[in-house]
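Chapter summary example.
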Amino acid sequence: MIDEFTQLSDLQLDALREIGNIGAGNAATSLSMMINRRIEMSVPQLTVLPFSELPYAIGGPETLVVGVYLQVQGMSPCGILFLLPLESSLKLAEMLLAKPSGSLKVMGEMEHSALMELGNILAGSFLNALAMVTDLELFPSVPSLATDMSGAILSAAVFSLGEVGDHALLIETRFTEDNQQVVGHFLLIPEPGSLDVILERLGVNS
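The structure predicted for these 206 residues follows.
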């Protein structure tokens, strides 16, 4: 049984990374169909971190971020959180809405809507990739969006789940269009036992 994310082997991490790459590819396709332009997506890094270190991975607990959060029910319940530093969220919103680079100074309703839909696409693509490989039934909730300090958003996400493990899976997600590049952070926060179910279905549980 995997009691902590830190016990994951290289093989197990590779399996999860491959699911992340499949999800990113599917998300890029869905996003391109939505905006009628191609934005490349990749997963350059996948790491496991204790909750106490997560805010520092995205600039510190007082860093202003935009967060899109979903809860996932089913055979492997978890939370999914997509986080972007505020400056990065403005750049990504410019990409999504085909606005000139540097033109956005504040997040408005249209920008929030675009980022929420992106978070929904990302979560759906990752969960579909996970379900395809593991044959698990997973049901995401409607996404919610907030702008706050990263520490506050992470605490709210963990609180909404109730019981969680001590670690989370942090998937760096890179968006590229022409010479513009934005990096966001996609977090999988499993409830106790959920990771074991996933790894068992992947055939790499120890």
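To summarize the output: The first helix runs from residue 10 to 35.
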